[in-house]
Amino acid sequence: MTKPTFIIDCPWCKAKVAAEQEGIAEEKGWHPDDGVPHGERLYVGNCPRCRTPLAGESHQVDFEGIDAEEDRWSDIVRVFPKPARSFSSWRIPNVVTDSLNEADKCLQVGAYTAACAMLGRALEAVCRDILLPKNFDPDIPNSPLAPEKKIMLAEGIKKLKEAKHIDERLFAWSQELHAFRNMAAHPEDIVIPRQDVEDLQAFVYAIVEYIYDLTDRYEEFKARLVKNKSKK
Ligand SMILES: [Zn+2]
C-alpha cells in the first residue's frame, strides 16, 4: 500500500516535494471570544528524495457549511527543519517581522517574486523605524515632527549608511535587495531564481540582526562591564 503524501518545501533538496506522510495532528473548533471557526493541521513525513524528516503546518481557510461548499486548507508551510528565522530584540517593529515571515512563506511555496517584494518591504520598514523621529505619530495630522515625506528604500539605505547604522558591506547587500525589489514590484516578465531569493533573505536577516539584535546585545554587554567595574 502506498503512503499518503503532502506537498512541502524540502530545504536540502531546495524544492517542493511530495513527502511520505507518517502522521497528522488536527484541531478544529470555534474561537471562544468571537465564535470564528478555525482549523489547524500538523503534518509529519519524510522527503522522498533525501529522507529528511519534515514537519509542516496548514490552517483551514474555508469551512464547509459555514462559508463554503467544501473545506479548504492553506499551503503547508515547513516548521521543521529550518523554521522561519526569529529575532530577539523587542525594538523590531511588527511590520518588519510580519514581512520577513511572509517572505519566508512565499519562498517555501515557490513564489519567488513575491518573496523579493516582501524582503524589500521588510528593509524599507527597518529604514523608516530607524530613521524617522521616534515620537513622530503618523495618526496626528500636524504632528510637529512629521517628516516631509516617507522614506523610500533607496534613500533609506543611503541614510542608514551615512548615519553608520550599517557598514559598506551591508550597504552593498541592501542595494542588491533594492534592485531585486524593484524588479519584483514592476509587472515585467522576469524569473528570479530560488538561490537568489535565499541569498537576499540571508542578507536581510543579517541586516536586521546587526541593527537590532547585535546592537542590543553589545549595549547590554557594555552596561554589564561598567557595572562589574564599579563593584570592584
Ligand atoms: Zn529532500
Primary descriptors:
single chain, 232 residues, alpha+beta, Four Helix Bundle (Hemerythrin (Met), subunit A), six-stranded antiparallel β-sheet, 5 helices, globular, binds zinc ion
**Oligomerization status of the protein chains:** single chain
Protein structure class:
alpha+beta
Beta-strand percentage? 15-25%
Terminus-to-terminus distance = 72 Å
Residue-averaged pLDDT, rounded?
A: 90
Look at the structure and give the CATH class of the largest domain. Mainly Alpha
Number of domains: 2
Looking at the structure, what is the overall shape?
A: globular
State Rg.
22 Å
CATH topology of the largest domain: Four Helix Bundle (Hemerythrin (Met), subunit A)
**SS elements, strand count:** 6
- Biggest sheet architecture: 6 strands, antiparallel
